[in-house]
Automatic annotation (TrEMBL):
The chain crosses the membrane at residues 6-23, 44-66. This is DUF1146 domain-containing protein. InterPro entries: DUF1146. It comes from the Bacteria. Keywords: Membrane, Transmembrane, Transmembrane helix. It holds the Pfam family DUF1146. The keyword Membrane applies. The lineage of its organism: Bacteria, Bacillati, Bacillota, Bacilli, Lactobacillales.
Length: 76
């Protein structure tokens, strides 16, 4: 049970880190130059886009880690 709790914490921290990295990256693109955005919808678009990109990258990262852990069963 303790291992499941540790895995849950690692997963949540990974999601938040990747979403934060995606948020910083999306802000640097300056979408407002390319799309005429009002203040609130533009910020909402940036936040939602950051969540989508961050979640997808975190899922990929966690999937790679899980697959690497499962390679042990190939050797046994």
């Amino acid at each position: 049970m303790k291992m499941i709790g540790i895995q849950a914490i690692v997963t949540l921290v990974t999601y938040f880190l990747f979403i934060a990295m995606a948020f910083r990256s999306v802000q640097e693109i300056h979408i407002e130059r390319y799309l005429p955005l009002r203040a609130l919808p533009g910020k909402l678009l940036i936040v939602l886009l950051s969540i989508a990109i961050g979640y997808a990258c975190a899922q990929f990262f966690l999937s790679v880690i899980t697959n690497i852990q499962n390679l042990i069963y190939l050797i046994k």
